[in-house]
Amino acid sequence: RSSLGANAIALTNAANDFGGAVTLSNSGTHNATIVDVSGLSLGAVNVGQNLAVTSGAAGISLSGTVTTGGTQTYNSAVNLGSAATLRSGPNLVTFNSTVDGAQTLTIPDAGGANFTGAVGATTALTSVSVAGPTTLGANVTTTGAQTYSQAIALNANAALASTASGNIILNGATGAKTLNVNTAGATTLGGVYANTSVTTDNP
Fold first, then answer.
1. What is the dihedral of CA 125, 129, 133, 134, to 10 degrees?
2. Which of 2, 32, 49, 199 has the highest Cβ tally under 10 A?
3. Which residue in 98, 94, 99 sits closest to 81, CA to CA?
4. What is the pTM of this model?
């Protein structure tokens, strides 16, 4: 377990290998950058400004609440070890690889989320909830609900699927792409779908 405190944090040596959960606490308006050669487990995180995390082949394990005053960027595959809440105020949370794990993922602030890789392709998430705008570059699979409170911007054709009849709630989409919504639960299509082709198996 590592606890790192009040100033800017930069642990960027390519040979870094943290054996236990890393807990960050940074009360100032400073960034935190962490690189780990194998796999990195993040515990409770509170960073005053931006957080950027890169890990090796074992990826990044997220558990609990990550709070930042700036952006959050996860440059490696993410696995949810327990229910995860990512708070970034008006700033974006970006996943530059895949996200997996049978847990809930909640992004409750206005900055929204950018998912560049598949979500739940290997292990479906329990649920996904994003309060701000969402950008998708691949499919999202959950066993339960998916809620997107603002419009989705599509960078590629994508499918939103709930394998155990979870409700899927959308509030618009943009991008000249195809969005497939697949669930035996309720599908709610709110908002405007500009240039986006939407199909659903349970309107």
1. 10
2. 32
3. 99
4. 0.89
